[in-house]
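Customer escalation, tier 2.

The customer says the design service returned an amino acid string that "doesn't look like it belongs to this structure." They asked us to rerun it and document both sides in this ticket. The original structure tokens are below, unchanged.
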């Protein structure tokens, strides 16, 4: 993991030539406007969560697998297993849309924001509707079959932002998206250099009506000279508040 450097170059802060509003930044604002402001306007980043390389490996393998069926123009076995009216979509921008730091881009003229997010996959049904698909990997005693955890709310928002972005690119997008959820098993008798996964397809009916109003709220927040109040539900805000209290003793 690279050494944490909290200070960003001004060019990457709000108002700088390189700044744009990513899907993850929108989610940070929803989580905590104060952390979002300090990050994007003042240029001090939250300490990052370590990335899990095995999750990246699962994502890569899934993309390779679905791309094989995309090239053949046929359904993936998982789509057949769940009786999904869909197959991997062929689109000239699919590789660009899946590329980190590029992704699906949409210019929001009222705010002047360039908004982006990198999707994992895109399917298409017989009605010509595009379907947003997100890959998830974890390890638990029981396979994940539904989105019920607190952190899953972020996953849902993630999908809705992708749906909003794709609609802004002129695509007919289904409200229903899918999570390909891979859960590493703990009950193997031997490792044998193999980790087995339960793979479940979880449907989610998105509603992106919150996205645009939130973009206006973000614009208002960033143009304000006052830092938002600390969020009592934010672990980072609570940590720094507690630390400050100890330092004053």
């Amino acid at each position: 993991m690279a050494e944490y450097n909290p200070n960003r170059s001004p060019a990457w802060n709000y108002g700088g030539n390189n700044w744009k509003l990513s899907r993850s930044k929108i989610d940070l604002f929803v989580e905590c406007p104060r952390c979002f402001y300090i990050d994007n306007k003042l240029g001090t980043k939250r300490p990052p969560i370590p990335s899990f390389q095995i999750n990246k490996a699962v994502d890569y393998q899934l993309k390779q697998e679905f791309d094989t069926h995309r090239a053949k123009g046929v359904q993936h076995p998982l789509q057949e297993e769940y009786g999904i009216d869909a197959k991997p979509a062929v689109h000239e921008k699919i590789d660009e849309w899946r590329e980190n730091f590029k992704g699906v881009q949409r210019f929001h003229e009222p705010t002047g924001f360039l908004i982006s997010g990198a999707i994992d996959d895109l399917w298409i049904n017989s009605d010509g509707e595009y379907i947003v698909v997100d890959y998830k990997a974890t390890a638990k005693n029981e396979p994940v079959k539904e989105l019920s955890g607190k952190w899953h709310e972020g996953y849902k928002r993630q999908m809705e932002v992708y749906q909003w972005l794709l609609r802004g690119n002129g695509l007919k997008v289904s409200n229903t998206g899918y999570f390909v959820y891979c859960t590493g098993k703990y009950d193997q008798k031997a490792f044998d250099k193999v980790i087995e996964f339960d793979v479940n397809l979880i449907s989610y009916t998105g509603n992106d009506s919150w996205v645009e109003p939130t973009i206006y709220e973000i614009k208002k927040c960033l143009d304000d000279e006052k830092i938002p109040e600390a969020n009592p539900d934010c672990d980072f805000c609570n940590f720094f508040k507690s630390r400050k209290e100890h330092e004053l003793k």
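Tier 2 assessment: The sequence is consistent with the input. The chain has a mean pLDDT of 92. The longest helix spans residues 53-72. Sent an explanation to the customer and offered a walkthrough call.
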